[in-house]
Amino acid sequence: MASMDQPHRRRVQFGLRTLFLAFVPVAIIALPAGYYLRRPVPAQPVPVSGTVMLDGVSLDGADVTFHSTAETGCPAWARSDVNGRFALKCWHRKPTELGEPPKSGAMSGSYLVIIQKREAIRPRVTRPVTPERYASAVTSGLTAKVTRDGPNVFAFNLTTP
Q1: What are the pLDDT digits (tens) for 131-141?
Q2: d(CA 88, CA 96)
């Protein structure tokens, strides 16, 4: 009877070895894939647009900059068109990383906004078109709250003193 148990035992050993050899490569592939799938997805910019007016008139060529109030936030910027419309863009990572171009939109969060436009009066000499108070995040008084859900459309009506 001992001789009959011997072949049965070999089949079991052969089956376990085969199972082990099949499982190890699958585990080697699946573990890194599982780690990758569990990683948090980095936040992406959301579309942000708006209009800029100065004393009720569309402001063409104004530089609009959103400065994040969070320490880890990143600024977003745009230049207004002839109708005073703008659409922000930003680097959601370090600008030097991979040589990526900026992405459309801004990261969600709170921002201090500055708007400025300068015009040339002579070569290398410019003067402000917008009041100076709007050129500083400290004095502009302009703020924006960008949310994931949107609509993130802002209207800035600047006035001259």
Answers
A1: 999 999 999 99
A2: 19
